Amino acid sequence: MSFGWHARRVADSRLPLRVRVAALRSCVQLYRPLGFHGTLDRLAWLAGPFQRDEAALLRALAVLEEDRSRWLAELDAYARSRRTGKRCGRRMPREGERNPNDRAYWSV
Question: Is there a contact between 32 and 39 (Cβ–Cβ < 8 Å)?
Answer without folding.
Answer: yes
